């Protein structure tokens, strides 16, 4: 029974992170922390590292804190929650930074309908280089209008 709860908590956390990514992108990154996110929309630097990458560090700290709570304080749900955050973050990194933005030159020839829709939707998001007017969507869900051939 405990294994079932761990799996359910892991899956819930992974799916909840899709909401958190959308929420933090729309209201935090394009809100009061735009100063950290704007270099992702408008390259004003020569570095591979972006100030925007600091958001990954925040979620890594949350995930590591949950592992500590699990290991040191017996918070049994901490591990599946931490793993849900970690695997969502890893998935997001692969899809967003590697696949869409090509920070590492792999997955260049991926050409499925879903891949094209993701790229098209993200391109529309980046069409605006300003704090306002950037449509936000998730990694797992993208409006159907971007999947048209």
Could you outline the blueprint of secondary structure elements for this entry?
Blueprint: H1 2-32, H2 34-41, H3 54-73, H4 78-100, H5 113-126
Helix pairs in contact: 1-2, 1-4, 3-4
What does this structure look like?
The chain is mainly α. It contains 5 helices and no strands. It has helices at about 1-30, 35-40, 55-75, 80-100, 115-125. It is globular and about 45 Å long.
Summarize the structure.
The protein has helices at about 1-30, 35-40, 55-75, 80-100, 115-125.
Percent of residues in helices comes to 55-70%
> Which structural class matches the secondary elements?
mainly alpha
Strand content: under 5%
What would the average pLDDT be, to the nearest integer?
80
Number of helices: 5
* Number of extended strands: 0
- Structural shape: globular
Tally of discrete structural domains: 1
Overall radius of gyration: 17 Å
What's the multimeric state? single chain
Distance between the termini: 46 Å
Query: Could you spell the SSE succession in H and E letters?
Result: HHHHH
Low-confidence stretches: none
**Main beta-sheet annotation:** none
List the keywords:
globular; 0% strand; single chain; 149 residues; mainly alpha; 64% helix; 5 helices
């Amino acid at each position: 029974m405990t294994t079932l709860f761990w799996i359910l908590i892991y899956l819930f956390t992974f799916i909840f992170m899709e909401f958190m990514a959308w929420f933090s992108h729309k209201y935090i990154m394009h809100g009061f922390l735009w100063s950290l996110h704007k270099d992702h929309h408008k390259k004003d630097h020569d570095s591979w590292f972006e100030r925007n990458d600091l958001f990954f560090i925040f979620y890594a700290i949350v995930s590591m804190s949950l592992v500590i709570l699990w290991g040191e304080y017996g918070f049994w749900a901490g591990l599946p929650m931490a793993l849900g955050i970690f695997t969502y973050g890893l998935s997001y990194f692969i899809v967003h930074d590697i696949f869409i933005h090509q920070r590492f030159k792999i997955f260049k020839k991926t050409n499925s309908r879903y891949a094209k829709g993701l790229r098209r939707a993200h391109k529309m998001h980046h069409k605006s280089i300003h704090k306002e007017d950037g449509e936000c969507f998730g990694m797992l869900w993208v409006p159907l209008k971007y999947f048209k051939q």
